[in-house]
Automatic annotation (TrEMBL):
Protein name, per record: Phage tail assembly chaperone
Annotated source species: Xylophilus rhododendri
Lineage of producing organism: Bacteria, Pseudomonadati, Pseudomonadota, Betaproteobacteria, Burkholderiales
Entry superkingdom: Bacteria
InterPro entries in alphabetical order: Phage_TAC_4
Pfam families: Phage_TAC_4 (PF08748)
Length: 105
């Protein structure tokens, strides 16, 4: 049966570049957002470039799976501090999963 109201969360995989050229897969639990809320999120981000990456990601990330540290705002901040290119892959994973794009192995 088609659900008019989607589940409040869904998962996606971000491919995070690690030092030395390796790529790690980070399985994230994302928050579902309506079209209007997502547009407001993007408009706010564009109007407030001083907003931290952490605050932006906390708007869409609810948790993660198979990580050696439990999810928290502090742990997400540590991820941002330890890996140099996190925001783009997380946002890409969010929009791919939100659209229902199939992820390869």
């Amino acid at each position: 049966m088609f659900k008019l109201i989607p589940e409040p969360t869904f998962t996606g995989v971000a491919k995070i570049a690690a030092a030395g050229g390796a790529t790690q897969e980070l399985r994230l639990v994302f928050k579902h957002r309506t079209v209007a809320h997502l547009q407001a999120f993007l408009d706010h981000a564009a109007a407030h470039p001083e907003r931290s990456d952490l605050d932006g990601l906390l708007d869409i990330v609810a948790g993660w799976e198979d990580v050696d540290v439990p999810f928290s705002p502090e742990a997400l901040g540590q991820l941002l501090d330890n890996y140099h290119d996190v925001v783009r892959p997380v946002m890409d994973a969010y929009f791919e999963a939100l659209r229902g794009a199939k992820q390869g192995n």
